[in-house]
Design a protein that fits this description.
Order of helices and strands: HEEEEEEEEHEEHHHH
Distance between the termini: 99 Å
CATH superfamily of the largest domain: Neurotransmitter-gated ion-channel ligand-binding domain
Number of domains: 2
Strand content: 25-35%
CATH architecture of the largest domain: Distorted Sandwich
Radius of gyration: 37 Å
Number of helices: 6
CATH topology of the largest domain: Acetylcholine Binding Protein, Chain: A
Number of strands: 10
Low-confidence stretches: 17-37
Shape: rod-shaped
Length: 377
């Protein structure tokens, strides 16, 4: 047999022997390591807010400078201090801030922990700009939450559990459908120097939760703390709503003008409308630019609607008054004939005028009552 005839089978077998190990290395099987519950790292979280700045209603963003401390029991430190081990061998929770638009870690270091049931502390100082989810439908009577979320980019709930640092033992664990929410004291977690010109702090909360990733159904621990803030609305009441309410109230003066002076009535109404439009445009910079109607927008819309009602009333009054004049007798009577009784149209004209004088202030009061009930509820 010619030896050259065997070269192709030999080359094929040699190729299989060389490629099989490479293929095995290129596609290793995915392994999921599940630790016993006793070996799950229970990381206690403490935080302290140094400053809150740049709360922007248009972009729903805010800037927070904070200290963050994580505590856990490190097996490598059993019976030893931090100085006895290499820090590179210590476990790290690998945290990140999922709702941070941008952040800077000013420092991160290990130290010995003095908290019960822990022996290691990792301290951070983080300055970040965060994305919120502001609901501005009731602006400027709205309240918002400034949230900072903390998660691990490496360890799921089989390895890591976040807990709020407290003396309560034992703590219940959060469930997938039931986050563990607790109110925390402002004085302990927020510096007394924190001042927000447009807002006031009203409370703070911590939340321990689990979240499931949609693409692989894995479950990851999450911890977040939130600061509750309430907008100072006094300035808006005087700068926006007081003048608008005055303009709406001045619409009543249109009804006190002689019904026969229709042109003058319409001129006064148009002047009030123009003044409201100018006030609306002048205060646009004070209102957030959002794709839906806020309370402030609804208030101006109510003013325009009331002017529309006034215009409709003036048209009805003019129509009734015109018909009444066409059908009435002249005021100068011939001879000694008695004056005729007022016609039905004359009585209707008087009733329309009285209805406007009574109905408009009632309508104005009801509209303001409903709007402020919605805004303040």
């Amino acid at each position: 047999m010619n030896p050259l005839s065997l070269r192709w089978p030999l080359l094929f077998c040699l190729s299989l022997l060389l490629l099989t190990p490479a293929a095995a290395q290129a596609t290793p099987p995915r392994q999921t390591e599940t630790q016993p519950s006793s070996q799950i790292r229970r990381v206690k979280v403490n935080f302290f807010v140094i400053s809150v700045q740049d709360v922007d209603s248009d972009t729903s963003t805010y800037r927070i400078d904070l200290y963050l401390d994580l505590y856990w029991d490190e097996p490598a430190l059993q019976g030893r201090s931090l100085a006895d081990v290499e820090e590179s061998t210590l476990w790290n929770p690998q945290i990140y801030l999922p709702n941070a638009r941008s952040s800077e870690t000013l420092f991160a270091f290990y130290s010995d922990s003095l908290e019960p049931n822990t022996n290691l502390r990792m301290s951070y100082r983080i300055v970040g700009t965060y994305d919120g989810n502001f609901d501005l439908h009731k602006f400027p009577f709205d309240s918002q939450e400034l949230v900072v979320a903390i998660e691990s980019e490496k360890y799921d709930n089989n390895t890591l559990v976040f807990e709020y640092l407290t003396n309560d033992t034992p703590q219940p664990d959060a469930r997938l459908d039931s986050p563990l929410v607790r109110t925390v004291p402002l004085g302990v977690h927020v510096a007394s120097t924190v001042q927000l010109n447009e807002w006031k702090l009203t409370g703070a909360q911590s939340t321990q939760a689990l979240k499931m990733l949609e693409y692989d159904k894995s479950i990851w621990p999450s911890f977040q703390f939130s600061l509750a803030i309430e907008r100072n609305s006094e300035a808006y009441l005087w700068k926006v709503f007081a003048l608008t309410a005055l303009l709406m109230a001045l619409g009543w003066s249109v009804l006190w003008i002689d019904p026969q002076e229709t042109r003058f009535r319409l001129l006064v109404l148009f002047t009030l409308l123009l003044a409201t439009v100018v006030h609306d445009l002048a205060t646009t910079a004070l209102r957030p630019r959002v794709p839906y109607m806020t309370f402030a927008d609804l208030y101006f819309l109510a003013a325009y609607a009331l002017y529309g009602v006034l215009a409709l009333f003036l048209w009805v009054a003019y129509f009734v008054d015109t018909l009444q004049h066409r059908t009435s007798l002249p005021s100068a009577q011939i001879g000694s004939l008695p004056s005729p009784p007022p016609s039905n149209l004359a009585r209707l004209s008087v009733r329309v005028q009285r209805a406007g004088l009574i109905g408009y202030p009632l309508l104005l009061g009801v509209v303001n009552l409903l709007l402020f009930w919605y805004g303040l509820s």
